[in-house]
Each structure stands twice: as C-alpha cells, then as structure tokens.
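job 3f2a | input accepted
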Amino acid sequence: QVQPVESGGGLVQPGGSLRLSCAASEIIFRFVTWGWYRQAPGKQRELVETIARFGIINYVDSVKDRFTISRDNDRKMVYLQMNSLKPEDTAVYYCNTDPSSGVWGQGTQVTVSS
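job 3f2a | predicted structure (114 res):
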C-alpha cells in the first residue's frame, strides 16, 4: 500500500469544527473501503469511521451525529467532517484502506482545547 497523505488538522476550541482530507493514489481506490483512524497520546489506534465502495458507512458510537466520512472517487480523496469537537477527540488522525498492511501515512494532528 502506498502511503496516503492526510491534512486539515489543527487546534480548535471545544464545539468547533474541522474537515480532514486524505489523498490516495490506489488504482482500485473506488472499489475498496476507506477509513479514518485516530491515536490519542498513550492510547492504541482506534477505528473512527469507514465508508465502503457504494457508500455504506460504519462508525464508532463516540462520534455518532458529530463526524461524517465521505469520498470522492474521481479525485481519490477521503474526507472526515468533524463537528461539535470535544477534548477527547484530540489525536493524530490517519486514513487507510488496509490497516493490516502496516503502512500508514504521517497522519494529521487534531487538538481540541480551550
């Protein structure tokens, strides 16, 4: 797997919003499931939200009604719209289509703090 490139992170106040972007290069991009993952300091990386080939979405309960994953197959981009951000959302966010490969991008830092 070629490393995806994540961007869009930053420092925001609680209740704020942020949109993350993931640029991929896979030839079969449009045919596979993509997901956003995050890793907080001292914590294990966890799945946040995934979007499958035809748009079926799965997500962790903690981001329900707050985060929305989307994809643009023509541009080979995956997005994560994050609203109503909380301090516990603070983490490095990663995009991946094959977590088992062990290939990850550099991620993008999201910090939610007053």
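job 3f2a | The two ends are 37 Å apart (CA to CA).
job 3f2a | closed
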